[in-house]
Amino acid sequence: MLNLANAVQQLKMERDQAQRKLEQLNAALNVLGSLGGVSGRLGGGQTARKKRRPMSAAARKRIAAAQHARWAKWKAARRNK
Question: Which of 2, 72, 74, 77 has the fewest CB atoms within 10 Å, measured from its CB?
């Protein structure tokens, strides 16, 4: 029984150490996030998003035609096997 109690006590100490380490990491992430860098889930900094450039209808049509041609080529190669 004594060994089990020691194991439980050791596990609790390791849990407390892990909790302290996690709090330190969270604090470091908050500091880095507030510097204006890339923020993750925990970061509090706001980053400016780039505006997406609009794509013209003609460009979308060219891309769709090229993709269609790639699929047709792939399907034709599969039929000939």
Answer: 2
Phi-psi sector, 77: left (phi>0), alpha (psi -120 to 50), beta: alpha
Q: Is residue 75 part of a domain?
A: yes
Q: 67 with 59: CB under 8 angstroms?
A: no
Domain count, the chain: 1
Sign of CA dihedral 35, 39, 41, 46: positive
What type of residue sits at position 51?
Answer: K
Query: Does residue 42 sit in helix, strand or coil?
Result: coil
Q: What is the spatial distance between Cα 25 and Cα 33, in angstroms, rounded to a whole number?
A: 12
Amino acid at 59: A
Give the up-direction half-sphere exposure of residue 53: CA atoms within 13 A in the CB hemisphere: 4
What are the pLDDT digits (tens) for 33-60?
A: 888 755 555 445 556 788 888 999 999 9
